[in-house]
Specification:
This protein has 581 residues and is an alpha/beta fold. It has 4 domains: 40 residues, no CATH class; 273 residues, inorganic pyrophosphatase (n-terminal core), CATH 3.90.1640.30; 111 residues, Diaminopimelate Epimerase, Chain A, domain 1, CATH 3.10.310; 117 residues, OB fold (Dihydrolipoamide Acetyltransferase, E2P), CATH 2.40.50. The protein is 43% helix and 20% strand. A hairpin with a 2-residue loop joins β17 and β18. The longest helix has 36 residues.
Length: 581
């Protein structure tokens, strides 16, 4: 599918003033201005991102009361259950609070719902089981803020409920002994972008302060909190929250912690994946290596293993769990590839990705644990809202659907307009889920596509690539890339800079790499300068790029430093290309 390139324009005088006042290279100043940072003080805060820039935990709405309840419950030996979630954010949040309360020798355990059998958030059935097993205090992480009926049920069971969350609130707040949420209407916290793990980190920090008798925490707890920044960094990157403000601080210092002072489980996972060979870690190492493996356990119904990996201090057990998770991830990748191929085939043969405003695809053989990630890949390919439905093989239970959207199209609101065809639905603007009877799928497809047709213009159905600047290959030195990397960690809200270049030629033929030839490696040349380029997920470009008649092309790419056996070299991650007119 063709993509629109939008090349940024800059006020050169503003860039020059910022470069001089903030004492940064002109390129860095240009990239900062493009991110809305145009004053020297803000630029310095952004680039340095000191750990002391984190706000005191006591400023977070509700954290003081929650810390008091959990600290007192730990002292009294009351049975505490951490009610987590099955994604990487929920797992890391669970592990942070679990490790914190274990430091206090609390009577603590955790519960993570089964993704496919129970779904997201608290359930009355699970609360009943926990109460029957002796639970006295239940603290949610990364869920609970919208669980109104379940919170009322917990009260009826005599459970003391503490809710910690960051998701959208319902019309009223749940009945609970304490609620910790950055956007509580009773608070005035200036940053609402924390993920579930970051909220849990702030609560753990407050508990450590209480246990230490003041603002300065004991050495063992300080060591724990520094390690916990690594877990919070994983949750932050995995949950795709903006890497600005406190999130940027947590990820920057969390990456350093993961590199030099990881927990036993993270150390084992790094060894299993080869990340232990890297002296420094980047946000991409979380996004493409660590979090997919944690999420694989949840997608395949074994999220408990992810929490165990993150919370164990036994290196031998950590190695065993990491090895098994690596196998699960391989299974997840196989399932994902199978569903992706089938979904692409269905999209092309039964529908029209070029003309339809949205895609609703369904099949009885698709694993419900991977349909969300496959929907994301199809959105990247077709730039349309995509809903994938895993139908029950026996046709007895409702099908499970997962949708992903494009900027500007509210998926949750679209589902709400199709409630007549749905058994249930939930989620938010960018990602949402549903349950649907087989006989309603065609009606839902028609209704959903009609909403998309009305709201998404034809022009908006082409993906857009935001390009920071045009450059020549000769300017892409290691020093230049180091300057660009001073803006890291990259991710949501602080994307890795994308550049473009023209009059580029493919040297030789591209080479397929990766499992199934999904990626391409090639040599590109411009004005006598040759660089290696990798196109992740660009396997479909093979025939066009190796055509003998292909002339000069323009490329959009992200410049990176590739480190191999101690040698650092400049290469490009190809985002798009087009023949030159």
């Amino acid at each position: 599918m063709s993509k629109n390139w939008r090349i940024a324009t800059y006020d050169r005088a503003l860039v020059d003033r910022l470069a001089q006042a903030a004492a940064v290279p002109t390129l860095v100043a240009q990239l900062l201005v493009g991110r809305g940072i145009d004053c020297p003080e803000a630029a310095k805060r952004f680039l340095v991102a000191k750990l002391t820039d984190l706000r005191e935990p006591t400023e977070l709405p509700g954290v003081n009361r929650a810390a008091e309840i959990l600290h007192q419950a730990a002292k009294e030996g009351r049975r505490i259950i951490i009610y987590g979630d099955y994604d990487a954010d929920g797992m890391t949040a669970t592990a942070i609070l679990l490790r914190c309360l274990r430091l206090l020798h609390a009577n603590v355990d955790y519960y993570v719902p089964h993704r496919l059998e129970e779904g997201y958030g608290m359930s009355t059935e699970a609360l009943n089981r926990l109460a029957s097993q002796g639970a006295e205090v239940v603290v949610t992480v990364d869920n609970g803020i919208a669980s109104l009926e379940e919170a009322d049920h917990a009260k009826q069971l005599g459970l003391e409920l503490v809710v910690t969350d960051h998701h959208k609130m319902a019309a009223r707040l749940p009945t609970a002994a304490a609620i910790v949420h950055p956007a509580l209407p009773t608070g005035n916290y200036p940053f609402h972008g924390l993920c579930g793990a970051a909220v849990a980190f702030k609560l753990a920090w407050a508990i450590c302060q209480l246990a230490s008798g003041g603002g300065k925490v004991k050495p063992a707890m300080r060591e724990f909190l520094l390690q916990a920044t690594g877990l919070a960094a994983i949750g932050t990157v995995a949950d795709v929250v903006p890497l600005v403000d406190e999130n940027r601080v947590l990820v920057k210092h969390g990456l350093a912690s993961l590199a030099v002072n990881p927990t036993a489980g993270i150390a084992a996972l790094k060894q299993a994946t080869g990340l232990d060979k890297k002296s420094e870690l980047a946000g991409d190492d979380i996004g493409f290596t660590i979090s997919p493996r944690l999420n694989a356990t949840g997608r395949l119904g074994q999220a408990d293993l992810g929490v165990e990996l993150l919370s164990t201090d036994d290196p031998r057990r950590a190695a065993e769990v990491a090895s098994f998770i690596e196998e699960l991830n391989g299974e997840r990748q196989t399932l994902e590839r199978s569903v992706l191929l089938a979904a692409r085939k269905q999209a092309k043969h039964r529908f029209s990705p070029q003309d339809d405003a949205a895609l609703v695809l369904a099949d009885h053989g698709w694993h419900a644990g991977v349909i969300g990630i496959v929907a994301s890949k199809l959105v990247e390919q077709y730039h349309r809202p995509v809903v994938l439905i895993s139908q029950d093989k026996l046709g007895v239970k409702p099908g499970i659907g997962s949708g992903r959207s494009v900027p500007g199209f509210d998926l949750h609101r679209a589902f709400s307009s199709c409630t007549e065809q749905l058994v249930s639905h939930g989620g938010h603007a960018a990602a949402a889920g549903l349950r649907i009877d087989d006989r309603q799928i065609d009606r839902f497809r028609a209704a959903f596509c009609a909403v998309a047709e009305a709201e998404i213009s034809t022009n908006a159905r082409a993906a857009q690539i935001d390009i920071d600047a045009e450059t020549a290959f000769a300017a892409l030195t290691r020093q230049t890339i180091d300057q660009i990397n001073s803006l890291a960690p990259f991710g949501c809200g602080n994307r890795r800079p994308t550049l473009c270049a023209s009059d580029v030629r493919v040297v030789g033929e591209p080479r397929a790499i990766g499992n199934g030839g999904r990626h391409l490696s090639m040599d590109l040349e411009q004005h006598g300068v040759r660089l290696r380029a990798v196109a992740f997920g660009g396997g479909d470009w093979m025939d066009e790029l190796k055509s003998a008649s292909l002339g000069p092309i323009a490329i959009a790419f992200q410049p990176v430093l590739n480190e191999f056996r101690g040698r650092r070299s400049v290469e490009m991650h190809l985002a798009d290309w087009r023949p030159e007119e």
